[in-house]
From TrEMBL:
Keywords (A to Z) from UniProt: ATP-binding, Kinase, Membrane, Nucleotide-binding, Serine/threonine-protein kinase, Transferase, Transmembrane, Transmembrane helix
Residue span of region Disordered: 323-366
Keyword Membrane: yes
EC number: 2.7.11.1
Organism: Amycolatopsis thermoflava
UniProt-listed Gene3D superfamilies: Phosphorylase Kinase, domain 1 (3.30.200.20), Transferase(Phosphotransferase) domain 1 (1.10.510.10)
Stated name of the protein: non-specific serine/threonine protein kinase
Residues in Protein kinase domain copies: 17-278
GO molecular function, one term: protein serine/threonine kinase activity
Length: 465
């Protein structure tokens, strides 16, 4: 298939997929935008390229493996994974028919912006981790998690693509010819040493991807020497992150050299989702490239359309502590630097807005129904997240229901210990006690209330220290 064939003389694959335009490609294949003439929809068609220098017998084995792994990937259905619709044969070569998402890859966004703030990276990571967790539960290991395989859609959604394809095409391992197929920049140490990658390897690769997004540089250093990168990957030599802020802890655990010490993808999806909602208290403007270099992410792969929107919303109703070693908020050993909730944008590393002002002595009266709405909300949690979700305003709902439900699933109980009471205009203060993993965490929150169709909704949430 050539670009001329796709434009001047459109080809039809498997009797139904008419190629329209070439939209990308790389070592693993060529990607086209195509029309599914049977179902009248736009799809992405990817022709897989088999490793070079194969004998006829090896090529046949690789072709069969490609079909087998692609069919396995087609079983995965998840809102944050690009869906594989069909596996077709084009002159003996496997062709994947996938969901078409107008988007940019994370690699392209990083090439343009250099780095992203922690809150935005946490949101992207939470989306990708939730899809990877579903894949692992289905027995699918991605093996090639990297910025080029994470697509950012127009509405801010992140979707991971190329499930199972790297395994099918032997990408990311040493081929029979001794040449390294693909970049080792995001390989786990065990994969770089030639061991069979497992779910823990995907965790490491996602950690390396998020590291690159926050730090603006490759985890193993900015070099074009593939063998040097491979040696660094095998040793797990990663410089500690300097700009990760609230994501420092989770990144460190994801990048642990010992696979058994890394968290699972399901654990990461919940933790990153929580961090995304916490760090959304910081309103962040576009981040200038720290060390601009388009070369770093030039391996990225196909662009499909529009860059993801920046997260500017506030924290959803959850405690500020993270990880397995959580401590009550009033015992935190290193609270974030104080910033006013109404101050100018804080640095990306700020995870929780600290409110320094106290309640005014003569606040604007809030209706009793707003206070009651807060009482009713916590009375139904954590057991009724569907009803709780309906009581959130558009700012908090912008964080995504899956992350919201995922976080509440980690809480065994919650109770109000003080309030709720009106403090300023439509702001309601409440102190709550969360129970997670048998430990109690007491926090005070200022909730911004709005009315929609005569109903009070919780639209913003600020943790008060």
């Amino acid at each position: 298939m050539t670009e001329t064939e796709g434009q001047d003389n459109p080809r039809v694959i498997a009797g139904r997929y008419r190629l329209q335009r070439h939209i990308g490609g790389g070592a693993m294949g060529v990607v086209w935008e195509a029309d599914d003439q049977l179902l009248d929809r736009t799809v992405a068609v990817k022709q897989l390229l088999l490793p070079p220098r194969l004998t006829p017998e090896e090529a046949e084995q690789a072709r069969k493996r490609s079909f087998r792994e692609a069919r396995l990937a087609a079983r995965l259905q998840h809102p944050h994974a690009i869906t594989v619709f069909d596996v077709a044969d084009d002159d003996g070569k496997p062709v994947l028919v996938m969901e078409y998402l107008p988007s940019h890859s994370l690699a392209e966004v990083l090439a343009e912006r250099g780095s992203l703030p922690p809150g935005e990276v946490a949101r992207i990571g939470a989306h990708a981790a939730s899809a990877l967790a579903a894949a692992h539960a289905a027995g699918i290991v991605h093996r090639d998690v990297k910025p080029g395989n994470i697509l950012l859609g127009e509405d801010g959604i992140a979707k991971i693509t190329d499930f199972g394809i790297s395994k099918a095409a032997d990408d990311g391992t040493l081929t029979g010819s001794g040449r390294f197929a693909g970049t080792p920049a995001f390989l786990s140490p065990e994969a770089a040493r030639g061991e069979t990658p497992g779910p823990e390897s995907d965790v490491y690769s996602l950690g390396a991807t998020l590291y690159a997004a926050i730090e603006g540089r490759m985890p193993y250093g900015d070099t074009d020497n593939q063998m040097a990168l491979l040696y660094a990957a095998a040793a797990g030599r990663v410089a500690p992150p300097e700009h990760a802020g609230p994501l420092t802890g989770v990144l460190t655990r994801m990048l642990d050299v010992d696979p058994k010490a890394r968290p699972t993808m399901a654990e990461l999806a919940a933790e990153l989702g929580k961090l995304a909602m916490m760090t959304a208290t910081t309103k962040v403007g576009p981040v200038p490239p720290r060390r601009p270099s388009r070369r770093r992410f030039a391996y990225a792969g196909a662009a499909l359309a529009v860059v993801a929107a920046l997260v500017v919303t506030l924290v959803v109703l959850l405690p500020a502590s993270t990880g397995d070693n959580d401590a009550p908020a009033d015992q935190a050993s290193a609270p974030p630097s104080p910033t006013s909730a109404t101050s100018s944008p804080a640095p990306p590393s700020t995870s929780v807005t600290t409110v320094t002002k106290t309640a005014t002595s003569s606040p604007t009266p809030a209706t009793a129904s707003a206070v009651q709405a807060v009482s009713d909300y916590y009375a139904m949690m954590p057991g009724n997240t569907d009803a709780g979700w309906e009581r959130l305003g558009p700012v908090l709902q912008a964080q995504g229901k899956s992350s919201y439900v995922g976080w509440w699933s980690t809480i065994s109980s919650v109770s109000i210990v003080s309030g709720p009471r009106q403090v300023d205009g439509d702001t309601v203060e409440v102190t709550v006690d969360f129970v997670k993993g048998g430990s109690h965490f007491r926090e005070r929150h200022h909730l911004g209330m709005i009315q929609r169709d005569g109903k009070w909704l919780i639209n913003t949430d600020t943790l008060v220290r």
